[in-house]
Specification:
Rossmann fold, two-stranded antiparallel sheet, globular, binds S-adenosyl-L-homocysteine
Length: 225
């Protein structure tokens, strides 16, 4: 059993394999996404006191009123970004993540793309993400303390943009920074507590939106702290 990092059985490779089996049972089909989920040790990203729950399919608190996303939702968003009509998954290309938190999804993206930028508005969370990604030697995932509502102009345009916090509508900067043929996924808030995963593609005729699952994310907030 591989128990190197925190020295407890629940963080083992075997527990992670079970998580991947559950993702498969829940309907995730993209083998590369499943492999990436199996390769990233989620327990590294959660508070040590919660490490024994790292491979449950649930969101967990990160501090600062934020959460590490549920594994199924991370896998689902990335699968939707990669899905294509002919069945051959599309490459993510240059990818921007808004709302890196402690860096878990950024690490999964880092397994699937050589160019990942991830921004986070809460400085201490970003500092944790830096430590975590360094520990996994994912040095090609570039982190930035910034308001992701403005996108990341210096690295635009992006083939893929993934937003890990819910907004009432799509920030204009993100649409502008999407490359032709690019895709953006985000939870869009309706009235009340409803949110829905929304995939937006930049096609020659304009932006085309497709709506998927009901989800629950923390809010996308302006400014940095
Ligand atoms: N991607 C993370 C999820 C973190 S929760 C994971 O893999 O688990 C969502 C994060 O979005 C929070 O850390 C929150 O601080 C951040 N966030 C909210 N609004 C933001 C904004 N405008 N710019 C950057 N980050 C933002």
């Amino acid at each position: 059993m591989n128990t190197q990092v925190h020295g407890i059985g629940m963080t083992s490779q075997r527990t992670r394999v079970r998580m991947v089996e559950r993702l498969r049972e829940s309907g995730i089909r993209d083998e590369k996404v499943l492999a990436a989920m199996g390769a990233v040790p989620r327990h590294v990203f959660v508070e040590q006191a919660l490490a024994h729950r790292a491979y449950e399919d649930t969101a967990l608190p990160l501090g600062f009123q934020q959460t590490i996303s549920q594994p199924y939702v991370v896998a689902r968003m990335i699968e939707l970004l990669r899905a294509s009509k002919d069945g051959t998954p599309r490459e993510l290309g240059k990818t921007l993540e808004i709302g890196a938190g402690c860096g878990y999804q950024a690490a999964v993206l880092g397994m699937l793309s050589k160019q990942v930028y991830a921004v986070e508005r809460i400085a201490p969370l970003l500092a944790k993400a830096r430590v975590n990604l360094r520990e996994l030697r994912l040095t090609h995932v570039r982190l930035k303390h910034a308001d992701g509502m403005l996108g990341l102009k210096e690295a635009a345009p992006f083939d893929t943009i993934i937003v890990a916090a819910a907004a009432a509508r799509v920030p204009q900067s993100l649409l502008e920074q999407l490359a032709p043929g690019g895709r953006l996924i985000l939870p869009l808030a309706g009235g009340g507590s409803d949110q829905v995963l929304s995939l937006i593609e930049r096609q020659p005729q304009g932006f085309v939106e497709t709506r998927y699952d009901a989800v629950r994310f923390v809010p996308l907030l302006p400014g940095v702290e």
